[in-house]
What does this fold into?
Amino acid sequence: MRMHRKSNLDERLYACRDILTVSDLSDKNMQRSAQIKEYIDFEKIFKNNNPIRLEIGCGKGKFVCETAEQNPDINFVACEKISNVLIDALELAKEKGLKNVYFLNCAAEVLSKYFNTESVEKIYLNFSNPLPKEGYKKQRLTHPKFLEIYRGILTLHGQIIQKTDDKSFYLFSLESYKQSGYKILSTCEDLKNNPVKGDVETEHEKLFKSQGKAIYRIVAEVE
It folds into this structure.
């Protein structure tokens, strides 16, 4: 079902323009678009050279905003391709007065358009759409084609931290990391009963835990 467009969306996005880059994807060829570089000067934006972490698919922003509050000496960039969802994250960051969070309204396919090589120390993939149908597997955010994009922007020994409630997606992701030359640092198949210190609970995670679903977690590293 199509999501109802939020009221005054364009005006609200404009009010958050100081913490937002909106991707111009008039060229539907994502691969070609990603080759036209428009690197963002994050040192200028954040006014420091602190490490950068990236959340891909930030939803309404609970995870990135709370994690940024806990880590004021780290800069966070949150990517979300659906502006109708992203506006909630933008306004939450504004409400909290966060100075170490910035947002990208773009698809994961074009991240290398905006991030220079080896510029991100960690990537968070929180409850990405598992896209269970076989015909959609190349669109899963842990498919090798995406892992190659992430490798290009992650630092040496940079990490991907993934959480999902979908066991099939978890197993698919594990295999993808291995195929793509990532080192698996840790796995957890019951995060609810094995919490990780400092790991912020997302909106989806809270719901899934209340439903008794298992939460899976992977930490993979670029070698």
